[in-house]
Amino acid sequence: MVDYTLLKQYFFQLEDALKHKIALKLTPRRKFIYEIARIGIRIFDKNWSNGWTTVFVPYEILNSMNVSGMFVEFFGAMLSGAGLSRKYFELAESKGYSTDSCSYHRTIIGAAMDGLIPEPDVLIGASIPCNGGVKALKRIGEIFNKDVFILNIPIEVTSKSIDYLVDQYQQMIDYIEENTGRKLDYHKLKQSIKFNNQAREYLVEVNNLCKNVPSPSISNDLKNFIMYILLLGTKEGVEVAKNYRDEFQYRIDNKFFGLPEEKYRLLWIQNRIQFKTDLINTLEDRFGANVVIDELNHIWWDELDESDPLRSLAYRMMTHPLVGPVERRLKVLTQLAKEYRVNGAINPAHWGCRQSGGARVLFKEALQKVGVPLIHLDVDCVDERNYSHGQILTRLEAFMEMLTASNF
Amino acid sequence: MVVKGIKSSKKPMMGWVCTYTPLELIYAAGFQPYRIFGHSNPVKNADSYIHPNYCQFVKSTIDVAVEDGYNFLEGVTFVNSCDAMRRLHDVWKEYVPTKFIYILDIPMGYSSLGLKYIRTEFEKFKIALENYTSNVIQEEVLEDAIDVFIESRSLFHSVNTLRFKNPPLIIGSEIMEITSEFFKSDPKIWNEQIKEKLTISGRNTTRSDIINKPRLILSGSPIHDVNFISFIEDCGFNVVYEDLCTGSKFFDIKINKSNDLLSVLGEAYLNRVPCARMMKIKDRAKNILNISKKYDANGIIHHSLKFCDTYLYDVPRLKELLIEKDLNVLFLESDGSLGSLNQLKTRIEAFLEIIKSQMR
């Protein structure tokens, strides 16, 4: 019998700590992390089935079937943030997993080997943002002797390709029913589309408020906000989004800005660095530089059609900026750079990220065209074993000095 | 039996990079398909265009392309094969002026939905080719093209049967020369030349250097350079089958003809012997086991290109699956450049010794 004490403790303690903090003072960040902790606790709730997934799958459908979806990259980030990933890297590597592979995925494979994570009832992998994620999920499935349901996300939007994804969603529902005995509650799904639309409106407002100069947010207010996708389509998700909107509006109304001496506004590409570093503090304290927008926090989709949930969700997925050729993503990056009036962009260029690394030169050139310089940090965002703080700091300092000298 | 100096037709050339590309459509549209390989030397310029942690195939292809090494190509057809191939498409599109660039979206795995989808993808590709050439691809032209490639595969299999014998009547490096010629030739001309060679029958193995060598299957990431095979053979093996999309496996595709030719092609390509990107590791292992029996192999070398997630993620599990079947397997990883080969020599020779000791 595998004991998941460590994981259980982590989520229960996190929830408990946040509950107490919220009792003292409610902040949107606290509320957000509190709700994520509650999703972590759901893993141990018998009323829910467990689904291990890659990052972009339709959680609204899973939630409407009482399946608690959890993307594997979340765990990679969490273990790194908690300083616990080394053991799992070493375990995965001892079995032959390459150190050049994505460390988000390598950590969770090691964790699954070590019995840290409970057995999934279903495993669902989507072909975006990367094929590596699906491969990692396949290996995790094999540890539990289970196969993975693969969603092939078409790279071009046509009525036939939307039909194809809708049909795959239908098959995914059948697969979940077969493996968990849980039926899709269509009423609940429609309700989740309603929540999704409400939350979306708040989130668009949140982002629009961050376009204010100076921004009402500081760099870490919306750090790792990609986790929010686990809350999409839930009442709690609406509450979190509203809290952020209210807070940022309050800050602007009262001229209480994230970084009062905001000198530089930055765009962060893809994921943050997950282990503990003081890079963000350095940017803020020494240079007055504020990350005002993370690429992955962009709300790219329009309001969903409540009368046709599956089609709406399919369309949303297919229009994600990370689907297919990089053109769509470049367009979004330059749009964000302009709308948020950023002075520079940071790309951690996560080692092992094959879907993103190949576009690094294209990112740089696209942003240069709109007058925004970019720095690639060339860092592994999860595996700190090769992290050279001094080297990265020097590069970041040089970048900031360049911005200063150029009067950006 | 090396086929050299094959003349190409005067047709415009269409580059392609992945074995899930329906060459029949390209040929029927009036192009000569040309397989893009990059090179096997140290990479020079690619790091200025793409992250250094990409496989040799992608980086060396960019190397050649940005120096106009592929400027004889009228167009290039990419496939959404893996993360790296998608980015290869993007970099090429940005930096290599090419008249026709297309990316095919091929699903991972097999399913009835996938079959339907691949047909629509092939139909879109056909229309794109027709629009570019301003010529409609007639059914009979497509059928003829399908027949040409059926004949190529059949001829290749005839040649490959020469490897059933022990010692093989043709060695791996010779086969790789033949496949390499196919990838850059007009298939009709290639077919004729192979037929001519096959009629010169009665081939005898008189080469003492290949007698008593253990028989080996080479599996894994794409390898295109015949020197790689020669190197393994020089280490003391006879390579009897390449489970590579650049070797014998490329020709393992079955066409079941029916009225709807696009469905015929869709079914054939989706169900071909799977590459690691299809996420069917048990089928890969089963196929390796089957060919191991069919070609009476003594061992398998599985080679992964450095940074090739598609194959590297399969290694730990594939190792278990193959060892369960009592197969002798050596897993290697290299950057794929010829310069890296000597580093592998000791391991290959140690593997050879193990196999030889079992044969005694």
Key attributes of the depicted protein:
heterodimer, A: 408 residues, alpha/beta, Rossmann fold, 3 domains, four-stranded parallel beta sheet, 8 strands, 9% strand, B: 360 residues, 2 domains, 12% strand
SSE topology sketch:
The complex is a heterodimer of chains A (408) and B (360).
Chain A: H1 5-24, H2 28-42, E1 49-53, H3 59-63, E2 67-71, H4 72-81, H5 85-94, H6 103-113, E3 122-126, H7 131-143, E4 149-151, H8 159-180, H9 186-210, H10 235-253, E5 264-268, H11 279-287, E6 289-294, H12 309-318, H13 327-339, E7 344-347, H14 354-357, H15 360-369, E8 374-376, H16 389-405
Parallel strand pairs in A: 1-2, 1-3, 3-4, 5-6, 5-7, 7-8
Helix pairs in contact in A: 1-2, 2-10, 4-6, 5-6, 6-7, 8-12, 9-10, 13-15
Chain B: E1 13-16, H1 23-28, E2 32-35, H2 56-66, E3 73-79, H3 83-95, E4 100-104, H4 112-133, H5 139-160, H6 172-183, H7 187-199, E5 215-220, H8 226-235, E6 238-243, H9 261-270, H10 281-294, E7 299-305, H11 309-312, H12 315-324, E8 329-334, H13 341-359
Parallel strand pairs in B: 1-2, 1-3, 3-4, 5-6, 5-7, 7-8
